[in-house]
Design goal:
Bound molecules: iron/sulfur cluster
Structural class: alpha/beta
CATH superfamily: NagB/RpiA/CoA transferase-like
Number of domains: 1
CATH architecture: 3-Layer(aba) Sandwich
Number of helices: 8
Radius of gyration: 17 Å
Strand content: 15-25%
Helix content: 25-40%
Shape: globular
CATH class: Alpha Beta
């Protein structure tokens, strides 16, 4: 059941979303805000030509929006590492994804002045964000937005990462025991690469779709 606070959160999202769109556009991202998931999903697919090969980085936001199944239903060619039968095959598919046409991903945090913050274990998702795929579509719930870049980085490190690792019971990191980030150097750490996307270059290559809901970690 939704919290009684929810309508006020969503009302605030509907005000802050368009402000953030302007901040992102000032940094040369394409950006659009949607109050609801179905409109955001339609927008995502309207941005992807029918002949594009699509891949993605692990994103609970995209999963919550059912974007992967929707892409398959719409007959796009996919590079889906979850179909790999071995770890070697999975790593190879992650390499191939760097040359796909459209890469889908979430964001660990976004500052109100329009900078993206992402933390990655292997760096495949961070790499695709920086260079490779013809376009990257970042889909983010407004729960990812923080006032400043420093607070956004803190969100990524102390909220998103310790939540994300709960999906991997075998990873023996401090946060998988205590629930708190302890700035580890464990070989199991999922915090290897931290990327701040200050500007989108070339302009418009990264398209940010903001959704006025709580999505992902
Ligand atoms: S404890 Fe290690 S793996 Fe966990 S969030 Fe902190 S740096 Fe990342």
């Amino acid at each position: 059941m939704d919290s009684p606070n929810r309508p006020f959160v969503e009302l605030r999202n509907s005000k802050l979303g368009p402000v953030l769109v302007k901040a992102l556009q000032a940094r040369h991202f394409d950006a659009e805000y949607f109050d609801d998931i179905p409109q955001a999903v339609e927008k995502v697919f309207s941005l992807i030509p029918g002949d594009h090969v699509i891949s993605w980085g692990g994103s609970m936001t995209a999963a919550a929006m059912d974007l992967y199944n929707e892409a398959a239903k719409r007959d796009y060619k996919l590079i889906n590492r979850d179909t790999a039968k071995t770890q070697d095959e999975k790593m190879e598919m992650m390499r191939q994804a760097l040359l796909c046409d459209t890469y889908l991903m979430g964001a660990n945090a976004i500052s109100e002045d329009g900078q993206l913050v992402n933390i990655d274990a292997y760096g495949n998702r961070a790499a695709a964000l920086c260079f490779g795929p013809r376009q990257v579509i970042v889909i983010a719930g407004m729960n990812k937005v923080r006032k400043t870049l420093d607070i956004a980085i803190a969100r990524a490190r102390t909220i998103a990462a310790p939540l994300n690792i709960q999906r991997f019971a075998a990873n023996k990191t401090p946060c998988n025991i205590s629930g708190a980030c302890e700035d580890c150097k464990s070989p199991d750490s999922i915090c290897s690469h931290m990327v701040i996307t200050r500007l989108c270059k070339p302009a418009g290559r990264i398209k940010v779709i903001l959704v006025g809901k709580d999505l992902g970690f």
